[in-house]
Input
Amino acid sequence: MSRLPEHIAVIMDGNGRWAKKQGKMRVFGHQNGVGAVRAVSEACAELGVKYLTLYAFSTENWNRSQMEVDALMKLLSRTIAEETSTLHKNNIRLNVIGDVQRLPKYNYDALMKAIEETKNNDRMTLTLCLSYSGRWEIAQAARMIAEKVKRGELQPEHIDERCFLNFLQTNDMPDPELLIRTSGEERISNFLLWQLAYSEFYFTDKLWPDFGKDDLYDAIINYQSRERRFGKTTEQLNDK
Ligand code: IPE
Ligand code: IPE
Ligand code: MG
Output
């Protein structure tokens, strides 16, 4: 418990393959992925993890079939409707990052309402990444900075890493110590490009709908065995 990550980020992958394995439509996999979201959120809150960030829909996922995109959007709205009161009861704050203006209005409105309802909860922040991509976020930050410079509110020489991160959508959270990706793929797929600079990566072959509390504990225990050097040497770390 003494080396618990404060922030865990998850690329929830493998729903489609999970469904295909049982001869079902991809949507069936997404529906069953909601159970894993519930299990992992609960486990994180119970342990005392302060931030859980879930990659639910990427900018690139808009390129999937209209049928799948529609089904995912409907599933999102059903999940918000069904789960918000539980989040609230458990003192969890809901947060969203991504280009949410691109979401259908019924989802956008429901999300804003759920965010408002849970905004004072402080046990854990659950961030859903929707219509999100890391490059989009960084380009967006660059645009905001350029506008500030143009208005004379910011000097170019004051733009450094610390200044830059204020313009990212994650400006109110620490970087994730641990990134988990399910389904055996070992890539970032345009997830938190800036924030994952020094995160520990954990990959598992489990498909997302099969991922449960025990799998989360395995990932955390594995993380706890890592030596995080941040560019230094083992000797330097031990000297301290
Ligand atoms: C992850 O599962 C969920 C989303 C990207 C929305 P996938 O739908 O990518 O499942 P696979 O990778 O095709 O199995
Ligand atoms: C990444 O999964 C996005 C989400 C989990 C939401 P994808 O399944 O879209 O990623 P790629 O296409 O395999 O890299
Ligand atoms: Mg996938």
